[in-house]
Write a structure and sequence with these properties.
about 325 residues; alpha/beta; 7-stranded mixed sheet; 4-stranded mixed sheet; 16 strands; binds 5-S-methyl-1-O-phosphono-5-thio-D-ribulose
Length: about 325
């Protein structure tokens, strides 16, 4: 289930825009192709774009490209997920800028993400009670990471422990990462799930049909505010209202210590067309306008726990995060 991998000096990746109907694998030696794939969401999910950008810089060295130009292009692909910048900075801080050193570091980033996912899964599953129905949003699964997942990793582990009855998957408009990708992953893992429209979550909670909400993160500020796929904030507020645990699962590579609060997180705004169409078919009248923020910020006060590889953080996050 790896979304990106290195093979014979090529970077291979699953084109996630084509899932679930077609499993299309691309391979390239051109970092610009990787940058475009990140921009257009063929490769997506915070940790996965970090890993891909590390390998993209490795490709740039392999092809004797201008490294600073490659950094500039990769940094401009998506603004919100801090993992992208974290991975690029980590690669660029290597004392030796040669192909072997870069390949080794990119592999380290990928391997460490695998390890972090497993630790997060074990810790996160300990928060899930037996007979749970878990609601998740977007895709924080294997496709968004090094292959196992953060939120979906927690769900996988809790399922293995016999704690999960069913997963409710928000379809996640406009690009349907839930209905297309999370559903595909859960199906592969033979974990029972049903897709709900994004606007069903509140009523499902009111009916008592949600035991916990588990989501990933694109960037976590020093005070515990979390940027994640648009719609996450309303889920957190609803969970709070209905007294349902709202759990964020993310590796420390998604923490941004340089910013005090979520107000400082740059939020990506994408093309209007993504909202004005559905599955490639136009649904709005010609001339219609749309607003398309790809992420929102959930204030820390609505979060029950942030699970990272080093522990389970509970409010007040400011104190807990400061000792990490
Ligand atoms: O726009 P996307 O599909 O890249 O958004 C992805 C998310 O919002 C995920 O929840 C987040 O990156 C965490 S992935 C482990």
């Amino acid at each position: 289930m790896k979304p990106v991998w290195w093979e014979d000096n090529y970077l291979c990746f699953i084109d996630q825009r084509r899932l679930p109907l077609n499993l299309v694998i691309e391979k390239t030696r051109d970092y610009r192709v990787v940058a475009e794939a990140i921009k257009e969401l063929a490769i997506r999910g915070a940790p996965a774009i970090g890993i891909a950008s590390a390998y993209a810089l490795t490709l740039a060295l392999l092809q004797n490209e201008d490294l600073d130009e490659a950094v500039k292009i990769l940094r401009s692909t998506r603004p919100t997920a801090v993992n992208l910048f974290w991975a690029i900075d980590r690669m660029m801080s290597l004392p030796v800028k040669d192909f072997e050193a870069f390949l080794e570091e990119a592999r380290n980033i990928e391997r460490e993400d695998e390890e972090m996912n497993l630790d997060i899964a074990i810790l996160g599953a300990s928060l899930i009670p037996y007979n749970s129905v878990i609601l998740t949003h977007c895709n924080a699964g294997g496709l968004a990471t090094s292959g196992y997942g953060t939120a979906v990793g927690v769900i996988r582990k809790a399922w293995e422990e016999g704690k999960v009855i069913e997963v409710l998957v928000d379809e996640t408009r406009p690009l349907l990462q839930g209905a297309r990708l999370t559903a595909w992953e859960l199906q592969e893992a033979v974990i029972p799930y049903r897709i709900i429209t994004d606007n069903s979550a509140g009523f499902m909670m009111e009916l008592g049909r949600v035991s916990a909400v588990v989501v990933g993160a694109d960037r976590i500020a020093s005070n515990g505010d979390v940027a994640n796929k648009i719609g996450t904030c309303s889920l957190a507020m609803l969970s709070n209202r209905f007294d349902i645990p709202f759990i964020v699962a993310a590796p420390t590579s998604s923490f941004d210590w340089s910013i005090k609060s979520g107000k400082d997180i740059p939020i990506e705004e994408r093309k209007e067309e993504e909202v004005l169409s559905f599955g490639g078919a136009r649904i709005a009248p010609l001339g219609a306008k749309a607003v398309n923020f790809a992420f929102d910020v959930t204030p820390a006060e609505f979060i029950t726990a942030i699970v990272c590889e080093v522990g389970i953080l509970k409010p007040p996050f400011f104190t807990e995060l400061s000792i990490l």
